[in-house]
Structures are given as structure tokens and as C-alpha cells.
Amino acid sequence: MDYTQIEAKVNQSFDKLMSDLKEKVKIPSISNKNFDQNQLKQSAQWIKNKLNDIGVDSKILTASDSEGNQGAPAILASKIIDPALPTVLLYAHHDVQPVNLEEWITKPFEPTQKGERLFGRGAADDGAGLSIHIAALRLFGDNLPVNVKLFIEGEEEIGSPSFANFIKQNKAELKADVIVVADSQNWAIGTPSITTDLRGVCSLELNIATLDHPVHSGSFSGPVLDSLTAMCQWIAKLHDSKGNVKVPGLKAKPDPEFDYDETIFRKDSGLLDGVPVAGDGNITGKLWYKPSICTVGIDAVDVNTSSNTILPRCRARISARVAPGQLSSEAGQIIKDYLLQNVPFGAKAKVRVLETGNPFSNKIDLKSVKAAKEAFTKAWGSECNFIGIGGSIPFTSDLQEVFPQAEILITGVEDPDARAHSANESVHIGELKKAFLGECYMLKKIAEVF
Q1: Ramachandran region of residue 424, left (φ > 0), alpha (ψ -120 to 50) or beta?
Q2: Distance between terminal CA atoms of the chain?
Q3: Which CATH topology does 200-253+290-357 take?
Q4: Greatest extent of the chain over all pairs of C-alpha atoms, in Å
Q5: Domain 3-198+359-449 top-level CATH class
Q6: Three-state DSSP state, 341
Q7: Over the stretch 206-245, which tens digit does the pLDDT of each residue have?
Q8: Model-level pTM?
Q9: What is the pLDDT of residues 139-180, one digit of tens each?
Q10: Residue 409: enclosing H or E segment and its boundaries?
Q11: Minimal CA–CA distance to 364: which of 423, 403, 410, 418?
Q12: DSSP label of 141
């Protein structure tokens, strides 16, 4: 097929391509172990059936994580046209985040169109990525310009615990010239992007104690400090008064040439009026190339069940993002050492480094990157940008390690208002249509340059 024929097929098939995504959104495939894992199995089976219906051989597999626990169901599929053609591995994930029903304006597992957006949990992350892969296979049929393999993971939203073992166990079936990870975002609606830099991630657990048992605040407060206040002062030592991370030894890269307009950033992030943007430097640099640390959870007494009691101990979890160029394990140890050297009030404290995922940086002169840039520019009708992302895709470094000869492309459909992981997640329908075109164009361009 030429490019005109591809565009015509996308236009003709768009309703069907959208219906695939809507069917997937209806399955509450939450990978968090506190939820019904049968829904995750149903999701995997739905993908297998969908692929089989369009003539793509597929199977459902699992692997064990580092502690021997069985991982979530993943789908492997392939369509080999000619061994002489380049092979492209298409990655997405079919699991989704939990939902808080009170915060949603629609029912999260009933796809609902409002204006130009389709709302539903997983409509963007990563149902959109999955749907563009299925769309490319459906649209090309037996006329694929490259060999295609699919790896649809089922546990990305819980940190991909069995990912490394899975790709090692299935190395031969996953081997490819190009790996496309469709789990990122574009710079803005109407502006396609290729992600070249990802920050790494590192989580740490903090424990602090000031007493060996709870005591009445009226009898002992004043001379005795509660553990929650100690924890708050401890965490506060991680930042200066402007909000810059002040842990010595954490690396950063120079700010990029262009910046995120502050007005748009405030709207996209939901930053409240009067709350300043934290830290020094431009916003884009702080998102892509500088470390960050935030508190994501504290275990203390619930307000509704609290009493006038001094809390003897407290636990918190912090999440650090690590700039490209530094191993996350190194950053985690640096943060741990800094915290233990700065425990307030002589409290008893422990710090434990939890999961880590390394940053990723890509070269923009790779053949696949150039091919994708041309394809997306053509599909969107506007210049494709190279961007960094403040978030992390930790398994990308695993892919680099196991498949060092493969070129890795990070693409996506999300835009700044997609609200992945949050309430009212959605995908922009017009952007999704361009992404269908873009992926097909990309596969055709890859065939031309490899």
C-alpha cells in the first residue's frame, strides 16, 4: 500500500478501530493485587481473540518475578512476512490503574465520548498504544511492509516485576531490529513527538520513631515530640526553600533550549493559583533533566479515628525521579545516606531503598528514529519534536540490555490533558486517528531505510 491508500483505509476503518479501543476499556484490567485478577486474565484473552480474528498468531504467557511469584498474563504474537524484511517488535501494556469512583465525571469502565475526547480508564494509558498496534495489523493485513512481533505486557502499572525474566525467557521470540514502546505522550495536541529521554525512578521507605509506645498528649507533649512531626521535618530536609532538591550527589543535565509555557503548564498540571512553580531553571528542564523527590504516602493515624495521643512511630514512602546519566540504584543510596545523616531530634530512623528503574537516553540519528520522525510529521501535518518525559519507563533499560543491537523507539498518543493514572482519563480522538496513520507510515518508512 502507498501512503494515500493507507490514509483511505484509516478513514474507512476508523469506526471499527475505535470500537476495538472501546471494547478494551470495558474490561477493568487492574493489575494491583488487591483487585480481581480474573479481569486481567479476561483482558489478555480478549487481546488474543482479537489478534487471532485478524490473522495474527498469538499466545498468553507468564514468567516469575525475582521472588518466584507468577507474573501477570502477557501476550506474544507475530506475523512474519519474509525473513529478509526488518522485524519490528511492538510493545504496549493491557493493565490499568485503580480508580476512585467519586472523582470521575463518567463511569470509568464505560467508554464515553464527550466532545473530541473518549473517557475511560485505560483509554489513553495504554489502551491507545495497544489500539494503534492492532490498527496497524488490521489495516495492513497480509501486506505488512515489515515483519511484526507484539509483546503486550500485563503488569506495567505495578512496576513490571516479571518483565526482565519474561524477556530473557522469550528472547528468541522477541528479537527484533526495532522495538517500538507505545506508552508515552506528545508535546501537545497537533504536535507529534518522539521521546528520547526518560528520567529513572527510585522509591524509598522511611521509618522514624520517637517513643516506644503511644502516650497521652496532655501528659507528655512539649518535652516529647510526636513521630509525625519528626517525619515532616525529616522529609522537609530534602528540599530548599524554593523547592529545589538539595541532596548532594544527585546529577542533572543542562536545561533544553525550549521551555514549557508556564500558563499552559499551570493549566495542564492543575497547579493552584498563587502556588509558585517549584525550583530554579526552566520548567521543561526540571521535568526532564533534573532529579525530583516527592512524598507519595504516609502511614499515621486517620483523622477520623485520631485521639489526643502522641504517635510513637511513623512510616512514609518517597518517590525520586533520577536524571538521565545516573543509575537509579546509585541515586537511591545517595538519598538514603543523606537522610540517615540528617535525622531530626535524635529520633530512631531506618531507610530502605525499594524498587528502582534506570533512566533512558536515545540517539536521534538512528535510522528508526529518523523514519518515525518523517512518518509522524506526515501523519500530523506538523513537525515532529524530540522530547523528554518526567516520568519513567524502567523496563526500557532491560530491553537495551537484552537486545543491545535493537533500536528502541518510544512513542505515544497521550497529550497533556490525557490524565493518565488520574480520574477522568481520556484520549483525544483526533490525535488517535493521526496515531493510527503515524504507526502505519512508520512501519512503511522503516521498511524503506533498513
Answers
A1: left
A2: 18
A3: Alpha-Beta Plaits (3.30.70)
A4: 81
A5: alpha beta
A6: helix
A7: 999 999 999 999 999 999 999 999 999 999 999 999 999 9
A8: 0.87
A9: 999 999 999 999 999 999 998 999 999 999 999 999 999 999
A10: strand 407-414
A11: 410
A12: G
